[in-house]
Structure formats: structure tokens, C-alpha cells
């Protein structure tokens, strides 16, 4: 059975509502630290992408590129 676009949208909406309800039950401290975790995860994913794009460069180069990306996003 093929999943339709409407089913995907409905499931995505239900997932978003579950996440929102979960966030509403969190303490301010938990919300703060979940934001920190999201930022760290995003940095790790971006760093992995940089390393994939520049496999012959050093870790230091990759970190400097990440810093450059973060400065550009301000």
C-alpha cells in the first residue's frame, strides 16, 4: 500500500503536536538545555558535512569553517 501525500502531512502534523505537547510539559531549565543540545547536534551535522566536502583538510580547518558559517548566520 502506498502512502499518500495527505497521510504524510497528517502524520507530520500529529508528530509536531506531540512535540509541542512534550515541550509544554518541560521545565524552563529542560527547555534551555534542549536548545543547547539542538545547537550542538546542528553543529555536529554541519561539521560532518564540511568534513565530507573537504576530506583532505584538517580538523582545525573544518572547525574554522564551522565558525565561519556561524558568523555568517548572524
Walkthrough of the structure:
With 74 residues, the chain is mainly α. The chain has one domain. It is 82% helix and 0% strand. The chain has helices at 5-25, 28-53, 59-72. Helix 2 (28-53) crosses helix 3 (59-72). The radius of gyration is 18 Å and the shape is flat. The mean pLDDT is 95.
Key words describing this protein structure:
74 residues, mainly alpha, 3 helices, 82% helix, flat
Offer a quick outline of the entry:
By secondary structure, the chain is mostly helical. Helices cover 82% and strands 0% of the residues. It is flat and about 45 Å long.
Largest sheet: none
Percent in strands: under 5%
How many structural domains can be distinguished in the coordinates?
Answer: 1
Specify Rg, calculated over alpha carbons.
18 Å
User: Total number of β-strand segments?
Assistant: 0
Element string (H = helix, E = strand): HHH
- What shape does the CA trace take? flat
The portion of residues assigned to helices is: over 70%
- Structural class given helices, strands, pairing? mainly alpha
C-alpha termini separation = 45 Å
User: Unreliable runs, pLDDT <50, ≥5 residues?
Assistant: none
Report mean pLDDT, rounded to a whole number. Answer: 95
Number of helices: 3
Helix-strand layout with pairing:
Blueprint: H1 5-25, H2 28-53, H3 59-72
Amino acid at each position: 500500500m502506498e502512502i499518500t501525500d495527505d497521510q504524510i502531512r497528517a502524520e507530520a502534523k500529529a508528530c509536531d503536536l506531540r512535540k509541542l505537547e512534550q515541550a509544554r510539559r518541560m521545565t524552563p531549565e529542560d527547555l534551555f538545555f534542549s536548545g543547547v543540545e539542538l545547537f550542538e547536534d546542528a553543529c555536529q551535522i554541519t561539521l560532518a558535512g564540511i568534513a565530507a566536502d573537504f576530506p583532505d583538510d584538517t580538523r582545525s580547518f573544518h572547525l574554522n569553517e564551522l565558525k565561519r558559517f556561524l558568523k555568517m548566520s548572524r
